[in-house]
């Protein structure tokens, strides 16, 4: 089970940013159906025998080095990612990203080159009207469109499933023929219930090799966000 409070992040820190206005949309999958996506030395993490695929649109704000001002313009952008939940041979739990779509070309190029992350350049928009949030995106190279609309509700209790889905203190990524673990830390999430008012993500899921489920999402939640910091990449 994931721990809701981050373990201490070793120094040096390499990056800080804030994740804001996040919608968490999740479907349960059989682990065998997604196992081929995981880098060597990792496998699908499970909750009550199932693993999950997450679709998470949000705003990234204030990206920068651990100290000093954030990067102007390029340090704030919109992102929508598709993610899986991983555990490595040491028992360390994390996230595996199948895609990270962002509306800053320089961010996409840098993240792909430096960290080997599957960023893609997209045209994106986030609108808020009261408690209603709408996220739209079009992946520029492929013309893939996605839409998520959500109405934020009351604060919700964070149970074991919510901890499993959101209390993740790093990501696993394959880079230069090796699997690396990039650790992070942030405060515990404050989650709200959320009602989907629109969802068009089948093309986005197919674009990363997933078969879209023929049912509504199994779990939806919203968070105003958290600040986060990253440490240096580690070998699992």
TrEMBL record:
Cited InterPro entries: ADC_dom_sf, DUF2071
Name recorded for this polypeptide: DUF2071 domain-containing protein
Originating species: Kribbella speibonae
């Amino acid at each position: 089970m994931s721990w809701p409070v981050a373990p201490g992040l070793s120094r040096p820190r390499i990056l800080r940013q804030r994740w804001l206005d996040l919608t968490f949309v999740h479907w349960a999958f059989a682990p065998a159906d997604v196992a081929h996506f995981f880098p060597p030395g990792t496998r699908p993490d499970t909750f009550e025998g199932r693993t999950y695929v997450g679709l998470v649109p949000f705003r990234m704000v204030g990206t920068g080095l651990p100290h000093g001002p954030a990067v102007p313009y390029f340090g704030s952008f919109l992102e929508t990612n598709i993610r899986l939940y991983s555990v490595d041979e040491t028992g360390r739990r994390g996230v595996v990203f199948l895609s990270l779509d962002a509306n800053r070309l320089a961010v996409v190029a840098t993240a792909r080159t430096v960290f080997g992350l599957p960023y893609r350049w997209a045209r994106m928009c986030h609108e808020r009207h009261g408690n209603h949030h709408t996220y739209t995106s079009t992946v520029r190279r492929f013309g893939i469109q996605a839409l998520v609309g959500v109405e934020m509700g009351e604060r919700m209790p964070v149970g074991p499933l919510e901890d499993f889905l959101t209390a993740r203190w790093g990501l696993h990524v394959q880079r230069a023929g090796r699997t690396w673990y990039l650790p992070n830390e942030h405060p515990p999430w404050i989650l709200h219930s959320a009602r989907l008012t629109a969802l068009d993500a089948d093309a986005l899921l197919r674009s990363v090799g997933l078969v879209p489920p023929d049912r509504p999402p199994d779990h939806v939640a919203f968070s105003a966000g958290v600040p986060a910091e990253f440490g240096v990449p580690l070998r699992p």
